[in-house]
Amino acid sequence: MKIVMVGSGYVGLVSGACLADFGHDIVCIDKDPAKIDKLNKGEMPIFEPGLADLVAKNVDAGRLSFTTDLPSAIEGAGAIFIGVGTPSRRGDGHADLSYVYGVAEEIGASLKHAAVIVTKSTVPVGTGDEVERILRASGTAQKFSVVSNPEFLREGAAIGDFKRPDRIVIGAEDEFGREVMREVYRPLFLNESPIHFTSRRSAELIKYGANAFLAAKITFINEMADLCERAGGDIQEVARGIGLDNRIGSKFLHPGPGYGGSCFPKDTLALLKTAEDYGSPLQLIEAVVKVNESRKRAMGRKVIDALGGAQAARGKRVTLLGLTFKPNTDDMRDSPALAVAQVLTDAGVELIAYDPEGMEQAQPMMPHVTMSTSPYAAIEGADAIVLITEWDAFRALDLKRVKELVRAPVMVDLRNVYDPAEMRAAGFTYVSIGR
Ligand code: UDX
Ligand code: UDX
What we know:
The chain is α/β, with parallel strands linked by helices and 435 residues long. It has helices spanning 10-21, 33-40, 51-60, 70-73, 98-110, 127-137, 158-163, 175-184, 186-190, 200-231, 235-243, 264-277, 283-306, 310-313, 336-346, 359-362, 375-379, 399-405, 420-425, and strands spanning 2-6, 25-29, 64-67, 79-82, 115-119, 144-148, 168-171, 195-198, 317-321, 350-354, 370-371, 384-387, 410-413, 429-431. Strands 3-2-1-4-5-6 form a 6-stranded parallel β-sheet, with helices on both faces. Strands 11-10-9-12-13-14 form a 6-stranded parallel β-sheet.
């Protein structure tokens, strides 16, 4: 089937390339000409493991192309996906749907045949109804169906998540919508990925509910880590013991500096707004958002304590290892490193950082931070090292070499990558989470 993917960002580009790999004919659209130019030159606008090869293979096979011209691209397309950004609106945390609605208008104005319009972006409950209204109001004479098909892709693992999903969620209001979506995902039928057909509104709520639940699970283990520090528990042992209960599961029970990224922070806020609008507050998620926000800054204070307090910290030199919100991505959106760096900068600490992929995106967001060329170069002369993102490059540092490079052997490990006993034996003052 010919399929159009509007929006070629982390979600649209990965989804388009994977659908092409399933054998569909995909046209990825973006309003940003620079992005389309890069893609037509085989350059990736984002870092996602495996994406460059997947795109090249499908472009060579003639199944994947890129354009800024939506009207001509949608001709003959059985499904038109909307995968544009739905960022938090300035100030009130509502999802900014102006891009989604703008694309819906453009589609309505250019549609010349029956097609299914699919909201792939994470959109608040009821958005599908509004997209349908916009399409009707556009005066198109064509038969169409608006379907919700939320994505559950994790950055850094997006291709695997797309090709081997735990489930596919399709929110459709008619048989035409369901029929076309079965065709779109037929290749996944083959490997028995469950397709969950439901109503549009339920599908929209499933997406927010899933992300909010995952954010709550992480926040739960982060608070248990704080308790462990005071009650003398080891959070790694506690998390493992809890996670062995198969009703709970061991995933997303890793303590850290708080969750970040382009989804959890934005989606939890948007869900709270929806709950407020419908007069049904989600008090648990309200607490999750509050706790997570304050945790990121608390991690900055943890570093100041490790430096001997506010007075002692002033003028000290601290190395940040990892800036992105998680490993294997270049995405800095809502990364905890931003809040940690701000607290330290405000305390008069001099910051040097290294991140394998994120420094280009990070520098304009962290003007006071000096970006370095390697972990060891960044570590030179440091009064403390802070491990913020658990990139593989930071998992097996040569501790002898680190000890020789630093001014003071202090490490604050916000991802519990290292072992306390091993660090003490190596002569480090070692601070970690929940241990
Ligand atoms: C975003 C949201 O973060 C995610 O929650 C939602 O599920 C999908 O959209 P992401 O792909 O990360 O995911 O957004 P982004 O990387 O900003 O990509 C959006 C792309 O759409 C950008 O390349 C932007 O240029 C493009 N775009 C935006 C259009 O092509 N047309 C528009 O009108 C607006
Ligand atoms: C998430 C959801 O997992 C995905 O299903 C949805 O489609 C988009 O949002 P993503 O934001 O890419 O994916 O990353 P994820 O791996 O979920 O991590 C999100 C944040 O939680 C990161 O900051 C990560 O460091 C943190 N995290 C994750 C923890 O602190 N502990 C964990 O155990 C897991």
